[in-house]
Amino acid sequence: xxxxxxxxxxxxxDFVIIDSRGMxxxxxxxxxxxxxxxxxxVGFDQLAEIRxxxxxxxxxxIELDFWNADGSRAGACGNAxxxxxxxxxxxxxRDQVTIRTARGLLEARLIDGAVHVNMGPPQLDxxxxxxxxxxxxxxxxxxxxxxxxxxxxxxxxxxxxxxxAVDVAKWGRTxxxxxxFPERTNVEFAQVRARDEIRMRVWERGTGxxxxxGSGACATAVAAATRGLTDRRVRMEVDGGWLTLDWREDGxxxxxxxxxxxxxxxxxxxxxxxxxxx
Length: 278
Prior knowledge:
With 278 residues, the protein is of the alpha+beta class.
């Protein structure tokens, strides 16, 4: 009993990717939590499991399930989606793939060597984010005046004068578990540098500080444009590099770097221990 996996990252946002096509889903909460341990497992910001999809029935070439490092489920993961799309392009020689996630159908394209993914339209109703009670999403009743944006995951976007000066661990942990967010939330701290440039740092629910967050970058771009701080197309510097966001009529398109780090195999002992700890 062993389990092959891949390690990828997009702008430092790192993932374990397991290809389960041709078999039933293999990732469970205990396995995801054991794998996510950077000392006793492999370590990742998110885990993505590729599963079969009946294109004729679902409209998708593949399906993706996402897990956080604490074993909880994630509804969307933009950088992991781009990495999986690159994997599919390399495997098939195609330049377009449709991926079904909990967020819905996502389209990925390979254009001039770069992977572009449409992360879908933002969710700007309090029920969709979701929030705990009815309110407008543009100005939340929290210190710092954040905006809430749903991108398959909930996000709280704060605009700050200096992103480098923010104690991301302190404030991220506090806001993630605020009662206003019944499913917890990702937390972004954004400094607008120009109409087309943002510096963003992020705290991801179930994981903590990460070097990048694709859905968080999308949410930040939407929040900045909604408040009139930027145009709808921006470059965004995150801790791990640069992403480009373009909020179009059909959704928020994102592009950025992808890197295939390694292929490896989980041992039978590791898998057995993960099951025993369930």
